[in-house]
Specification:
With 28 residues, this protein is mainly α. 46% of the residues lie in helices and 0% in strands.
Length: 28
């Protein structure tokens, strides 16, 4: 998990993970 993710609500992180899976980006 990224450090910036720790500052985000868990539900928002989940949404971002789903979005990354739908449209993968170079944001490892």
């Amino acid at each position: 998990m990224l450090a910036k993710d720790l500052k985000k609500p868990r539900n928002q992180i989940q949404k971002e993970r789903e979005r990354e899976r739908d449209m993968p980006q170079q944001q490892a």
